[in-house]
Every structure is written in structure tokens, then in C-alpha cells.
Amino acid sequence: MNSSQPKSLADRPWLDPSAVPQIAIEGMTKTYGGVTAVDNVSLRIFKGEMFALVGASGCGKTTLLRMLAGFAQPTSGRLLIEGIDMTGVRPHERPVNMMFQSYALFPHMTVEENVGYGLRLLPLDKSVKAKRVDEALEMVQMGQLRKRKPHQLSGGQRQRVALARALIRRPKVLLLDEPLSALDKKLREKTQFELMNIQYQVGITFVFVTHDQDEAMALSTRIAVMNRGQAVQVGTPSEIYEFPQSRFVADFVGTTNLFEGVVEGMDSGVVRVRCAETGCDLYVDDPGHVTTGQQIWVSLRPEKIRLAKQPVAGLRVNQLKGSVLELGYLGNRSIYRVKTENGKIVTVFAQNEQRTSEWAIDWSDEVYLTWTANAAVFLQQ
Questions:
Q1: pLDDT tens digits for range 134-162
Q2: Using one digit for the tens of pLDDT, what is the confidence trace for 224-238?
Q3: Which string of b and e fits 236-270 if b means at least 16 CB within 10 Å?
Q4: How far, CA to CA in Å, does 106 sit from each of 79, 134, 150, 209, 289?
Q5: Partners of 280 in beta bridges
Q6: Nearest-angstrom CA–CA distance, 305 and 348
Q7: What is the topology classification, in CATH, of domain 9-95+171-251?
Q8: Which class in CATH covers the domain with range 255-379?
């Protein structure tokens, strides 16, 4: 979905230890009184990235964004942009601009006046400023509405005006605080594509904060998942989703089923996990870093599970028996909560491939849950 996703290893500078980041956050910490909002965060962000900061409320993501903008100073650590230390540099002197969650448009100004406001102090000829305003309005497809005022615009149109105003000074980095949160679901999905296209056109690094995991997955080249002030995992959307490094990340990003167990043994590339919750052993592909007797958690995404009324035969296929406790119909898919024979509740996502008003599997039906050994991943913390 993400047009800004890297297409080859050459487009993934974070995999190259010698690559120089455009933004280097080094051991940045911010405390307020006795409360630590950001705790020793270090990140490398490269030119042209669409980099997302995600986490629950109070995790420190907005504080980190404000320190990038210069609206808050770190208690310790430092920020470098293109090798220049930004410590003590005032917000308007940094090569960054920020688009606020509220959009902060001037209600008494027209669209073109709002967009051109950032150029007022630049030593440019009137004709150059006018041309830049025209280009910015054209980029966000707002040229025909240039004489309107904010109260005459929809939420999506105000969002475009705010984006044009943030980009008109041509910053090296654009910071966005919950850029799409004020939009309804359909408009938010449409605007995601527009934002990706604009970012691709201008080639500017975007760093944005969002609590919407789907938004982060759709937009970003990489994601930093934050918890209690720390960046607990950084990776591409697929890495974060498919290979979480902790129970927190697995549970926070998307939906997952967690099984606690002990490594019983390994054979032919498959690990056997003794799991009291399920009453049977689970089989998981060997990642090469677990040992016999080790306590472990197995993370299994709901869409990796197959639901059927008859058991499925297969060597080392994981299979649990249960009954449908709850179900929900979402149009393109159905969500099942299945209570297994041992009382474990397992969530299953089933794609609705056929058009029908009949439930193939209904409330209280006896069912079998199956998945292959490569469908789940191990978590050690």
C-alpha cells in the first residue's frame, strides 16, 4: 500500500552501517520534575523517509517530536540534523517545520494568505513568493479555493492548507503531529495516499506521530514503537508486524494471540513447545536462538489461523478444538473468538471470500483451529 516503501536494499540506508543519517537522535532524555517523558532514545532517520512514532498516550512520542521542533529542550542527549548540533537552536532557525494536529490556520486569512504566511520574513521578491504560493496550492489541489477562508473548508481541505503552509518554506524535515486524526475514516484513508504522493514529490523527510497503528503501517518506511519513554523496537511496518521483539510490540501493533510455554525440544528445524494453556504441544519454526527448558511466548496473528468444522491431518500442524464464543461481521472479514477445550480464548480473522448472508460457522459451533509451524513467532520478553 505504501508508495514510499523502499523497493530494494539500495533504498534501505538504515541497513548500511556506513550510511549517514539526516537526523541523529543520540541518547535523548526529557524529564519534568521527577517524571521521565523520554528515556535515553537514540534513532537514525535518513533523508526522504516517512518515519512514524507510535505508542499509547503518555509514551513520550509527542514530547520527542516537540524536541525535534525545538519547542522543548532535552534534559540530556543531543539532536543532529545533517551533522549540525541543534542544541540551543531556536525553533524558527531550525531546518524543520511542524504541522500541528489542530492545523492552526488563521481564521481571518484566506487560503492563499495562510499558505503564504511562512514566507513573510524571507528576503524574496513578491513575484517569487506568489509563484511559491501557486506551486504549493497546486501541489495540494487547492488552487480553486484560494480565496476561501478556513470556516468555508471541509476538514480534509483545511488539512491540505496546513500541509501546504508547512511545506512552502521548503524545510529539510517536516514534523507532523497526528496529521489525519481530525478526519473521518474514509477521508483519512483517501488522504493517506495523497500525503504519500506529496511526500514522494517533494522528497522531504517526514517524521510523524500517530496513535493509529493502521495509519503508521500504511504511511511509513519505518516505525519506532514507544513505551514508557523508550523506543522499544524500530523497523519497517512488515518487520514490526511479522517479527515483533516483545510481547508489548506484538500486542500493541495489530491483534495477536499469545501462548506461554516451555521449549520441550527441537527436531528438523521445528521447536516443540509444551503449552499448559492449550493442553498440547505447539510446533514453531526454529529461529535459532531458543534452548530446551526455556520459558517462551508464542505470538500468533489471527489471520494466520484456519477455521474449519472438521479436523485437518498433517505432520506437525498445530490444531486446537473449541467452540465459537463470539463473532463479528465486518463486511470484508469476520472476527471469531473461540474458546478451546482448555479454556483458552483464541481470536481468528476469516476473510469473507464469498457473498452470502449465511454464516458458514456460527455461534456455539464446534470448530478446529489449525496453523502451520511457520505462522507463529517466538517472544522472549
A1: 888 888 888 889 999 999 988 888 888 88
A2: 999 999 999 999 999
A3: bbeebbebbbbbbbbebbbebbebebebeeeeeee
A4: 31, 19, 8, 23, 57
A5: 275
A6: 6
A7: Rossmann fold (3.40.50)
A8: mainly beta
